[in-house]
Amino acid sequence: MCCQSKDVFNSVFYSLNTLFLYHQKQNIKQRKIKTMSVLLYFFLFPLLSALLSLIFMKRIKYSRRNLPPSPPKLPIIGNLHQLRGLFHRCLHDLSKKHGPVLLLRLGFVDMVVISSKEAAEEILKVHDLECCTRPKTNASSKFSRDGKDIAFAPYGEVFRELRKLSFLKFFSTQKVRSFRYIREEENDLIVKKLKESAQTKNTVDLSQTLFYLVGSIIFRATFGQRLDENKHVNKEKIEELMFEVQKVGSLSSSDLFPAGVGWFMDFVSGRHKTLHKVFVEVDTLLNHVIDGHLKNPEEKTNQDRPDIIDSILDTMYKQEQDGSFKLTIDHLKGIIQNIYLAGVDTSAITMIWAMAELVRNPRVMKKTQDEIRTCIGIKQKERIEEEDVDKLQYLKLVIKETLRLHPPAPLLLPRETMADIKIQGYDIPRKTILLVNTWSIGRNPELWKNPEEFNPERFIDCPVDYKGNNFEMLPFGSGRKICPGIAFGIATVELGLLNLLYFFDWRLPEEDKDIDMEEAGDATIVKKVPLELVPIIHH
User: What is each CA distance from 2 to 7, 10, 209, in whole angstroms?
Assistant: First the structure.
């Protein structure tokens, strides 16, 4: 009995003790919840108040202006919920519904999308001076080293000096011609590799082949080294890096929302970490290349032909100390980063789309190859020289049509208004982002007959060109911010296509009945499915 009472007592005591501890834990949890609620209230209430105030003030400010039409917006996020899929196609669809001058609210940022020739001309020509700076974003600040490159530098002395220097040292007609031997040698190597595949009747991943060709040309022209001779460089990693830079280079939450909210969203999503990681990888590559020029100049492939790094380093050493603009290593990194990252994929993508369209259009393919083989000669040449391109007018039309139908960068790099302007009668406030949809303009049925059709003949006796003077077609942009690498890019594309079409006939693998033309990408748009073809040596 005594033992039984003791057991009951112990049981009751244990139960009471457990109940007491449970209530104590609940009280601690409630106190923690109350504390967190108070902290959240003090942090979030001012933030929400500020957000609502900004929205209210913007509505009052914009209600007095004749703004462009806009799709219905949601509070705080604006039109973000309507932007799904490929950005240029989404904007094209919205512009068809709401007009060629379209206002979008992305979070707390205003963006005007231009999808007509007339509006593009007003921005890029009439109001070029008021619209020729770039919006400052988290990614552009990081990769441009706070505006020390050509692509993203704000309009001013630094931009003008860097553009003048890069043109003098790399982009001028004379310099582009001086790199002819590089283009010819690298094309010879690709032709030899393709002939080996043709002899074994193997399918070739032409997308990868063309990325490697252009990458090798620009690597040698820019860095003075062969791509496969640099022990610090992996060609597959460089291609991967290009697309990683594009992914992290788009607008982020930090760019669209007030500082605290945007930074927190990017931190939680891991974007800050990814951005830093990609930047470090790019910077490490550039450091290896520059250090090689500083420490081991004898490693250069062609010592008698100084590359752009040698030229800029020499300019840095000789610059006068009393000048207002001072070249630094960051400026050098910015220039060569722009040349490589912007030059490789745009030229390779253009050739990939051109070959895809030619294979899909046997009539155009036959006409192009007949011209090439007739003009260059019936007896097969061992090597194609760059002056052969001048004889080929129809090939040039094929490239024009490819740039119209498949501009490698369908949206020109964004601009930002530096003053209040009017576009097509609409008020565009200062600090508004401007985006020109050149893909949409190139497919406008009011400008082009049967715009979805690949028809190079449309450019016969047609004055429209891609050099920035005609606003029906803007693959390289126009105005003060036009792409400086037009001559280099076109020379690379022309010679590359000439070699592919002179030495080889091309057919689809037996298992493929047609070419998948689906698009993919961010800043530049490539074929989603790699272009795989079978080369046949032409005799």
Answer: 9, 12, 92
Predicted model pTM: 0.85
At 525 the three-state DSSP class reads strand
Q: Domains of the chain: which residue ranges?
A: 80-537
d(CA 359, CA 347): 19
Which positions ≥6 away from 194 have C-beta within 8 Å?
204, 209, 500, 503, 504, 535
By residue count, the chain amounts to: 539
Fill in the amino acid letter for 36: M
Of 393, 397, 324, the C-alpha closest to 358 is 397
**91 vs 100: CA distance, rounded Å:** 10
Hey, what are 190's tokens?
């690709």
Give helix then strand counts, H and E, for the chain. Answer: 18, 11
- Nearest C-alpha neighbor of 340 from the set 418, 270, 433, 235: 235
Identify the H or E element spanning 436.
Answer: strand 433-436
Q: Which residues contact 509 (CB under 8 A, 6 or more apart)?
A: 203, 532, 533, 534
pLDDT, tens digit (0-9, with 9 covering 90-100), for 92-150 = 999 999 999 999 999 999 999 999 999 999 999 999 999 999 999 888 899 899 989 99
Question: pLDDT band for position 26 (50/70/90)?
Answer: low
Neighbours of 96 (CB within 10 A): 13
CA torsion sign, 299 to 237 to 407 to 511?
positive
**What average pLDDT score do residues 421-433 get?**
96
Cα angle 144, 147, 153 (rounded to 5 degrees) comes to 105
| Dihedral pair phi/psi, residue 423, rounded to 5° | -125, 120
Q: How many CA atoms lie within 13 A of 514 on its CB side?
A: 4
Q: Which of 522, 196, 529 is nearest to 356 (CA)?
A: 529
245, 331 in Cβ contact below 8 A? no
Those residues whose C-beta lies under 8 Å from the C-beta of residue 151, and which sit 6 or more positions away, are: 134, 144, 338, 342, 413
Domain 80-537 - what CATH class?
Answer: mainly alpha
- Rounded Cα gap, residues 308 and 91, in angstroms: 38
